[in-house]
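Justification of resources, computational component.

The compute hours requested in this renewal are based largely on the per-chain cost of generating structure records like the one below. Each record pairs the submitted sequence with a full structure-token output. That output is archived, and it is also reused by downstream analysis tasks.
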Amino acid sequence: MKISYNWLKWYIPEIPEAEKLSDIFTFHICEVESFDKLPDGDSIFDLKILPNRAHDLLSHQGIARELASLLDIKFVDPTPKYKTPESKKTDLKIDVQSDKCRRYMGRIIRNVKVGPSPDWVVKHLESIGQRSINNMVDAANIVMYDCGQPTHVFDLDKINDGLVVRFAKDGEEITTLDNKNLKLKSSNLVIADAKNVLAIAGVKGGKIAEVDNNTKNIVLEVANFDPTSVRKTAQAVNIVTDAKKRFENDLSSELASFAMLEFSGLILEMCPESSFEDVVDVYPNKIEQKHVSVTVNYINKRLGSDFSKEEIESVWKKLNFEYIEKNGEYEIVVPFLRVDITGPHDLAEDVISILGYDRLEEKLPEIKLESKINETFAKMLWARNKLLNEGYGEVMTYTFRDKGEVEVLASASDKKFLRTNLSDGLKESMKLNQLNMPLLGMKEIKIFEIGTIFKKSGEEMHIAFANKKEIKEMTLDEYCSEMPEQNSLALLKSSDGTLRQQNSAPAFKMWSLFPFIARDIALWVPEDVKSSDVEKVIKENMGDMVVRGPELFDEFKKDGKISYAFRTIFQSYDRTLTDAEVNDVMNKITEKLKENKDWQVR
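The structure output for this chain reads:
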């Protein structure tokens, strides 16, 4: 997210110079992806906010609060500055028909004037790469980038008989604000009126109730939607918006109250002659205040630190956490906006974030390994070693197939089922490996796979191996029925307590990702000429593009002469070779062989 330095100064006037903030962000909050100075004196940070804090740090206020806590400087609460005139009774009807909408706030404002936004609004939005549209839309965007709560504006006069939050009907259509025509499914949560779908909940607004220059009366929407519902709907309609990014990270329902206050205050500032009606707040399951307990000993043990009671208490104060301490145990009242705090481990993370990771001593943890080994793993290891020693190579084939007993919910291809056997994949692997036999230098392909198959009755661990045209498959238990008891682990425990696998010498060498070209050359030579003599000439002239060979694959005698046939494999690690390149090398080899007058290239 892009963060404006001047915007942050609204909330933390004592903020350090912009250049010094990069290190503070990096070592305490998140990665700084870029830092740019604007001609007007502002500075812009592009911060990579991780999902665990996206619910409160994808906003200027959230970042400002975090910096104020880290730097122990004053945070200016913006709540008092947003005021609205006395509101009138409203007849706005809001019908929430799904628990996927956890809170829905709506407010009618009449007699607004749609037009350009004040300069400070335009400047704030443009500083973080957003385009100013009109004062109504801009106000909604300011709220989202300021406090993190997405909002929306509907044209009241284009709405038929109130708002309904419901699931769409299969095939129901909407044209979005960016003119995309979409067909919806019954799993998509929408905002509608008595006739039409007006918006895709948490994702995108529609054209029907769009605010334009003729709009006189509006409805402000501030809502909270289930994060999973928003994410799945956005994926289904293939739309990614800043609102979706925030909703899918589980915003606190309590944030909506401030957002409505700020939204209303901005509209009043831009349209001082407007008339406000009461807020309709549908909030059936108000979230309860969480309490988490933690001790100094727990924090120090988890972090490997030696922080004092006073230091840890200083963290609670910097974070403005309410707490009660009793017999060395702190009961923390978790702020509504910190939905990430679910247990004492999260509090330990806050402590080290504030006090600094440089306070931790660099030492390796003590890990006590138990000698008990998973039985399935032991059988897999024994079976793998047995087949490798018999000359088989291990492969891993696709779990997804075009038929099966267990179907997945969604797939990136036409393979929507989980495999019921390993043999089908092994057959395909055999064909592919046979095509590469010249490159591999193998006369036959012997491969195996150990993996899970999926049936309606449950999962099973199978093993399958192929040699020539024969493929055998069985359960891992069946294959390992003759496994000696003393070899059941197929592991050795070393003197230092670690577990080491037998036959674990590395045998893997990276192959080229580019295609190979195989070329053969045969010639007649006198009977007294050895194949090694011919091989030497070929090697001296084949250059560095040959990755295998020359290999003698045929020889026979006739009429006092002997025929040798050699195969060479050409391949590059950085590009696809052309026939012309290979032909040049083969021509060079041929000419060198012909220099021996008694040698006849066939």
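The CA atoms of residues 464 and 473 lie 4 Å apart. The radius of gyration is 35 Å.
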